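wait is this the right file?? whatever heres the structure
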């Protein structure tokens, strides 16, 4: 009971203006750069793609023809940047790239998700702040 009374008193401590907890920047996932994507060419093997982009964050065990590279950046506790690059294989070779990319000169037919599939090589696009 005594502890309960002490804890109730802590809720009434005034907070100084401008004083807040420090929140660090947090990067999660695979950071894919333009240089990394520029190295990709249709027909590359899975090992060559892994060498260029690194190991994918998400590999679906039920769809082994797709690797997802997800990147999140939190600044001061809020989502500042989010990217998703999906690498699609046909058999054991690279077919195309989808997701948050800027297409090159050629754009293929829309994918099953309804988003246009970008031709290889492509550029990752930053997502604007969601405030």
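ok assuming it is, sequence goes like this
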């Amino acid at each position: 009971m005594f502890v309960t009374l002490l804890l109730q008193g802590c809720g009434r401590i005034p907070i100084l203006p401008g004083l807040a907890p420090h929140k660090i920047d947090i990067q999660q996932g695979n950071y894919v750069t333009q240089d990394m994507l520029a190295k990709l060419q249709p027909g590359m093997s899975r090992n060559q793609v892994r060498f260029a982009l690194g190991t994918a964050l998400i590999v679906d065990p039920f769809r082994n023809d797709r690797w997802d590279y997800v990147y999140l950046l939190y600044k001061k506790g809020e989502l500042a940047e989010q990217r998703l690059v999906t690498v699609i294989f046909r058999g054991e070779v690279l077919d195309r790239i989808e997701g948050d990319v800027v297409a090159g000169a050629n754009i293929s037919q829309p994918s099953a998700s309804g988003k246009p599939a970008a031709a290889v090589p492509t550029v990752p696009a930053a997502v604007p702040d969601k405030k």
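Strands lie at 26-29, 58-59, 66-75, 78-90, 93-99, 101-102, 107-110, 116-118, 123-124. so i think its the right one actually
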